[in-house]
Design brief:
Blueprint: H1 2-5, E1 14-19, E2 27-33, E3 38-44, H2 52-70, E4 79-80, E5 89-91, E6 94-100, E7 105-106, H3 114-130, H4 149-162, H5 172-179, H6 182-185, H7 187-193, E8 200-202, E9 211-214, E10 220-223, E11 230-232, H8 234-245, H9 263-277, H10 283-287, H11 289-310, H12 322-339, H13 341-352
Antiparallel strand pairs: 1-2, 2-3, 3-6, 4-6, 5-6, 7-9, 8-11, 9-10
Helix pairs in contact: 3-8, 3-9, 4-11, 8-9, 8-11, 9-13, 11-12
Bound molecules: adenosine-5'-diphosphate, 2-acetamido-2-deoxy-1-O-phosphono-alpha-D-glucopyranose and magnesium ion.
Amino acid sequence: MFDVLKQFCLDGTPVSCERYGNGHINETYLAVTDKNHLYILQKINHHIFKDVPALMQNIASVTGYLFDMIGDPRRVLTLVKTVNGGHYLCHGGHYFRVYEFVTDSICLDRAESRADFYNSAVAFGQFQNQLSLFPADTLSETIPRFHDTPNRYTNFKNALKEDKLGRAASVQKEIDFVLAREEDAAVMMNLLKKGELPLRVTHNDTKLNNVMLDKNTRTPLCVIDLDTVMPGLAANDFGDSIRFGASTAAEDETDLDKVTMSLDLFDAYTSGFLGACGKNLTALEKETLPLGAKLMTLECGVRFLTDYLEGDTYFRIHREHHNLDRCRTQFKLVADMENKWQEMARIIDRYKA
Ligand code: ADP
Ligand code: GN1
Ligand code: MG
């Protein structure tokens, strides 16, 4: 990695470079120089992001736009240029980029308090606001049909038909769960197709560990992991945050009794998100926020199950059946949301004004 780092304009000479973070997609490293300057180095997963130049152009334009607006490198993810003036490096058949490390920050896999989760909602709500006038047509679609849930169903059914590893027979319960919800899965995309929901510039991967909070005040600094910033639905950004952050357990918890969707955390997120960007959302966008939560969770479960059937080629796994464990927590959350549907709608009602 030192060969790679040499090709970027760093403050000092790198003295260490270690694997870092819990992302499922890219390979992330923390690099430190002899001047004690911290950087994030990432090997971009080009099997997933097939057009890296277009991806990096998206990130450079979005972060440049935000920097012009905000002007503080702790409050905007900041790319470090290569010695040749580029935004990324191609080396040995792999693509690399470097970001300024967001200093004096924390990045959480679980909210340690209601306030932490509220603050992550403010971060994503503000991000949505800040990009509300960004020219969406200049962004490339880095992963086509990323949150097209019916298309995720098609991929799932193909994987099921192929059943490459002979795993389908052991997951019949999960397969039935998916198939029973096929009609619901299309509702959001149908509203979009009918022109009833607007496309906005959205983040599309609004996990809690894609937000940096200030270490001392625990208030929002910036949103990171901008690989999937592209036109999308506001309710999906809301929903993906609920999926991950309002769960009472980790995404890969094996004791499903521990996995529920916390209404208290749902309330906290709704108040932070709508407080930050609610004035820009239409009545139907607000009304469909609970549906966004359910469909992002269902879709993610379907994606984990598909990957399990296909032999774990997409999401990085750390143990056998990891994707199946992840799928099961998602379906447990979906079922829990179905039981709490009225309460979720009431919470939205409370904050929508
Ligand atoms: P992935 O797409 O694999 O999730 P991320 O861009 O989210 O990759 O990075 C993985 C982790 O690395 C993040 O969850 C966070 O902990 C850390 N990280 C990423 N960028 C920064 C940054 N600029 N400053 C500090 N930590 C970062
Ligand atoms: C991936 O990159 P990361 O770990 O923040 C995935 C998301 C999933 C998430 C599930 C580009 O997010 O879509 O919701 O895992 N990112 C991509 O934890 O597929
Ligand atoms: Mg991430």
